[in-house]
C-alpha cells in the first residue's frame, strides 16, 4: 500500500547551481577522463543536473600521477579551448597525504579549491604513519584541509566515530562523495556515510566523478525525505565555498 512517508526523491534535484569541486574530468592526466571528448561528455551529463561550474581536482600522487600545476593547467587549457561558452571551470588538485606532498611544500604552491581550502586524501589501505604531522604542517602553511571521502576509509570505521572526531578536532573538514549515498562503494561505506551525516560531521559534498557511469548512477539515486533534509545544508554549504 502506498504511504506518503515512503516517497523518495532524486538527489540530483538539489544540485541546480552547484559547483562540483572534486572530480576527475580533466583529460589524460589521471585515472579519470582519458581524452577531451570524454571530458565534454561528462560536462554535458552534469548539465542535465543543472551543474555547469567546476573546480577540477586531478590526483597528485607521487609515482602514479605526478601532476604539477603546469600539467594540470595545461589540461585545463586544452579543455577550455573546446568546451561550451557557458561552462565555468578552474583547476585545483586532490593531494595524497604522504612524504612527497611534504616535499612539494617547499617547491611549489598547492592548487587550492577555493580561498585557502585544499583537498587532500589518503590511501584506502592505511593512514599515513605521520598523519598528525602532515595535518599540522599543512595547516601551518595556511592550508584549510578538506578531507576527501572520509566515509571510504575503512580503517576509521568504528561505532564511536572516535577517529573521525579526532580529525575534526584537528581542524579537518569532511567532503562526502555523492555516490556514497548509494551502494556504489559497498553497503558498509553507504552506512558510514549516513552515520556521519546523522552526526553532523559532513561539511561538504562533491561527485568524485571519474567516468560517465558514475554520473548515470548518480542520476538514479533516490532518497527519503529525511535524508534529503540532512543533505540540504551540506549542499548549500558546498555552494557557499564559491559564493
TrEMBL record:
<dbReference type="InterPro" id="IPR016667">
    <property type="entry name" value="Caps_polysacc_synth_CpsB/CapC"/>
</dbReference>
<dbReference type="InterPro" id="IPR016195">
    <property type="entry name" value="Pol/histidinol_Pase-like"/>
</dbReference>
<dbReference type="Pfam" id="PF19567">
    <property type="entry name" value="CpsB_CapC"/>
</dbReference>
<keyword id="KW-0378">Hydrolase</keyword>
<comment type="similarity">
    <text>Belongs to the metallo-dependent hydrolases superfamily. CpsB/CapC family.</text>
</comment>
<dbReference type="GO" id="GO:0030145">
    <property type="term" value="F:manganese ion binding"/>
</dbReference>
<dbReference type="GO" id="GO:0004725">
    <property type="term" value="F:protein tyrosine phosphatase activity"/>
</dbReference>
<protein>
    <recommendedName>
        <fullName>protein-tyrosine-phosphatase</fullName>
        <ecNumber>3.1.3.48</ecNumber>
    </recommendedName>
</protein>
